[in-house]
Amino acid sequence: MSIEPFNRLVRLAARAFYDDITMKGDNQPKTGRGDNRGMAVVVLDALTRRQWVREEDLAKALKLHSKQLRRTLRFFEEEKLVTRDHRKESAKGAKIYSAAVAATADQKITKEGEEKMKMHTHSYCCLDYAQIYDVVRYRIHRMKKKLKDELDDRNTVQEYVCPNCGRRFSAFDALQLVSPNDEYFHCENCNGELVAVSDKLAAEEMGDGDENARRRRQEKMKDMLQKIEEQLKPLTLQLARVKDLPIPEFGTLQAWEARANAAARISGDSSANDSSRSSQAQGYAGTPMPFLGETKVEVALSGVEAIEERAVADTKPTSVKVLPPWMIKQGMNLSKEQRGEVKAELSTDQMSQPDDEKKAKAESEDEKSFQDEYVKAYYAALVQRQEEQAAASKRAQQVENNGTSTSYLSNVVSETPSERQVGMKEKREEDDDVEWEEAPPAGKAFKVADLNIQADYADASGGDDDDGIDWEEG
Amino acid sequence: MFFHIQLERNMQLHPRHFGPHLRDKLVAKLMKDVEGTCSGRHGFVVAITGVDDIGKGLIREGTGFVTFPVKYQCVVFRPFKGEILEAVVTMVNKMGFFAEAGPVQIFVSNHLIPDDMEFQSGDVPNYTTSDGSVKIQKECEVRLKIIGTRVDATEIFCIGTIKDDFLGVTSDPGAAA
Ligand SMILES: [Zn+2]
């Protein structure tokens, strides 16, 4: 489930269609301060970096008034871009969500009495990618069709006007207007020869001026159609790119929470249990990352612990940054896949980009350098670990053949989903080996460091994300 | 578009028909009254295919006529906006041409005729392409698209276009002659 192409679609659509939308309050005077154009784009961008999010948290993260945000979200709900869910919930209910956000499983259950005391309605929102795809396509289709139809006068019922008495007729009256004497329609009123009215807007003008007005209008229409093609090109290209991809689905709020919590429970995320961390995540619009469990790679390398600890320490102050889930996903891929594979992926990605999008190239280069650094660190840690492992396996050799150990190692180097089972087996066989027990948290910490790299990258490139596209005004 | 639907109608029957053939008389009268008529809602009644139910007659005071509620099946024809129809051209003039699809009259105004077709007046007024390969005149068949319908209580009139893909003349008697 690659979400990035869809997020790009959302960002492009936001800039194309919602850039100059003003969320005006009913009784707000239109002052300079009340002008909040561009807010819609900011909100949509923020949503591309989240899944289900509580609206209050989003408001806090965007430093918007919650009322203002709600107005914007309601607008997007009507535009069919956003799904919203409202529910009355107690502190406990809120915690279920927080739990999902922090990907932690063991929140304390609040007592019944407490629940009854506080029941608040909370609203959640989430991008509806499937619908966005359809809505954007439909919108473009309607825009073009309207102009094209107008351009060829298609689907317009011809109108006729009597130059003598000014009475108007439509083509529906044609049967009554035909005359047996000549080829023209005649006025029912005065029997004057009727003149066709070329188009509705130029209806007032008649005669030669009529033709000119019509021509002018046609020119304008052609111009507009051309502009649509030109200016929406990035968007249509992105639509084409996204066409055959599986559309990311988060499901309903409840389903999403359930899945997120289940994922967390399976992975036994110990670091997430840290209450300070989860509360942080919650406070800062808690980037929901429930699918970490899905792509998580646990590298059982106890030798990396020192590095990890440093990484964790570094992460702490910056961990409040918004971490786009799609970037996390990419990072996970890297740590999981062999480097060559990732490179291939990148280059195909680049090829699919249009030439003028230099930005994208720069981004991927940026990304590469981060990935390089990461890979270096990874291999350094790996070598270190291998040395230690070699020492350990010597010890193990005294007890048994060292076949298992080495095979285990090679498993780690390449990707292995069954790594944990192997580890378990190992543990059973060598009860005195403490390193195995420490392994899973080690893998966890490694993951956090990785996220951080990705987060920095996101931060660096997030600002001028859309430089590749020039939206022309008017 | 054609539909097979059930309709209901109150039939008044003169007392002279009361006898062994009352039902036949009633059905015959129904066909005579209903087939070929047009209702704005259902379109043209093309044919009655069956009588489902004849209710109890009610004698009208003073006249002796009896009213029977009759439920019957029939085929109706109702043109819709956007529908593609084949029609026979009945009249061509400078403003466009008229055509008929069964009971429905359709007018195609000249701005909904492709731009490369020019009006030619004369004995047989027609619209012809510059190379003369396609000609629209009386009696020829055209495929057209309905872009508007006016439905009155007793009449349906349509506006059509042949200015779209796959529309236009389908058979041309003038070409053979
Ligand atoms: Zn007149």
UniProtKB/TrEMBL annotation, chain A:
Can the keyword Cell membrane be found in this entry's annotation? no
Do you know which Gene3D superfamilies this protein is assigned to? Zinc/RING finger domain, C3HC4 (zinc finger) (3.30.40.10)
Xref: Pfam families: TFIIE_alpha (PF02002)
Family affiliation: Belongs to the TFIIE alpha subunit family.
Segments forming domain HTH TFE/IIEalpha-type? 6-137
Q: Supply the InterPro entries for this chain.
A: TFE (IPR039997), TFIIE/TFIIEa_HTH (IPR017919), TFIIE_asu (IPR002853), TFIIEa/SarR/Rpc3_HTH_dom (IPR024550), WH_DNA-bd_sf (IPR036390), Znf_RING/FYVE/PHD (IPR013083)
Q: What PROSITE patterns does this protein's entry cite?
A: HTH_TFE_IIE (PS51344)
**UniProt-recorded name of the protein:** HTH TFE/IIEalpha-type domain-containing protein
Keywords (alphabetical) are: Transcription, Transcription regulation
Could you tell me which species this protein originates from? Asparagus officinalis (Garden asparagus)
Give GO cellular component annotations, separated by semicolons. transcription factor TFIIE complex
The superkingdom listed in its UniProt entry is Eukaryota
Extent of Polar residues compositional bias: 395-416
Ranges of compositional bias, category Low complexity: 267-282
Composition skew (Basic and acidic residues), residue ranges: 336-346, 355-370
Coiled-coil portions: none
Stretches the record annotates as Disordered:
267-289, 332-370, 387-449
Biological processes annotated in GO: transcription initiation at RNA polymerase II promoter
Q: Would you indicate the residue range of the signal peptide? A: none
Q: Where is the composition biased (Acidic residues)?
A: 429-438
Automatic annotation (TrEMBL), chain B:
Q: Which Gene3D superfamilies match?
A: Nucleic acid-binding proteins, RNA polymerase Rpb7-like, N-terminal domain
Q: What is its subcellular localisation?
A: Nucleus
Which UniProt key words apply to this protein? DNA-directed RNA polymerase, Nucleus, Transcription
SUPFAM superfamilies named among the record's database cross-references: N-terminal, heterodimerisation domain of RBP7 (RpoE), Nucleic acid-binding proteins
Nucleus among keywords? yes
- Where does the record place the RNA polymerase Rpb7-like N-terminal domain? 8-64
Taken from the UniProt entry, a GO cellular component term is:
P-body
Query: Which positions fall inside the S1 motif domain?
Result: 79-156
- Give GO BP annotations, semicolon-separated: positive regulation of nuclear-transcribed mRNA poly(A) tail shortening; positive regulation of translational initiation; transcription initiation at RNA polymerase II promoter
One protein family per Pfam: S1
Its main subcellular localisation, reduced to a broad class, is nucleus
In Gene Ontology terms, what is one molecular function of this protein? single-stranded DNA binding
Stored CDD domains: RNAP_II_Rpb7_N, S1_RNAPII_Rpb7
Q: Does the keyword Nucleus apply?
A: yes
Q: PANTHER family, per this entry?
A: DNA-DIRECTED RNA POLYMERASE II SUBUNIT RPB7, DNA-DIRECTED RNA POLYMERASE II, III
Function (record text): DNA-dependent RNA polymerase which catalyzes the transcription of DNA into RNA using the four ribonucleoside triphosphates as substrates.
Family, as annotated = Belongs to the eukaryotic RPB7/RPC8 RNA polymerase subunit family.
UniProt name for this protein: DNA-directed RNA polymerase subunit
**Which organism does this record belong to?**
Asparagus officinalis (Garden asparagus)
| Lineage of producing organism | Eukaryota, Viridiplantae, Streptophyta, Embryophyta, Tracheophyta
